[in-house]
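Review this:
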Amino acid sequence: MKISKLKIMIDENVLVDIAFDIHSSLALVGQSGSGKSLTLKALLGMLPNEMNLELECSSDFELVAGKSVAFIPQNPFTALSPLTKIEKQFFVDESRVKELFDSVGLSHNLLGRFPPELSGGQLQRVVIAMALSNKPKLLLLDEPTTALDSETRVMIIDLLKALEKQEKFKMLFVTHDISSAENLCEHICVIKEGKVVESGLMDEVINRPQQKYTKILIEANFANREFRV
């Protein structure tokens, strides 16, 4: 999947003007306000009305949120109703829900519980199962491991890696967690003020960054916090 142009503007003010390829899994990193969230919203069709989008994309599927494109938020509670049982929050049949629970390693017994009764890791796996219910071609992830402890973070990353191969979807992973990005994604794209400053294979960029901005981000190891320069 190739995004040859993604340009977001308010009047004549350009907020984001980037291009990138998602060969399989791509980490999108940058400081707060660099344009990461706007990029996700653009791909989900959720930009505010006052923003104008120019999007040129070559892909073997159409970008349709909720069908070919699925989203996993940073906080799973934002995707779940705390007063509704888990089983009632899926919009596919029961057999498919159980199949999804099996794929993310959750017991079927949890279906009859309410979200506050589950741990953070369990909730994130529920949200992953929901995201996969329509067999998306592209999975967008917005810091899905930030609020998790280190052990659970590793488990979620390993799960996503396994599901990527099993379900054959592409991933765009927005994160500040360098170690998670390294473990999950093959490629990385670093953006600053709405522009790409460096991109390439994860190992090459992490070990031999060419731009000062990239070096600062890596050296700061901006896990678990916004890093501002």
User: Anything to note?
Assistant: Confidence is low (pLDDT under 50) at residues 222-229. The CA atoms of residues 103 and 162 lie 9 Å apart.
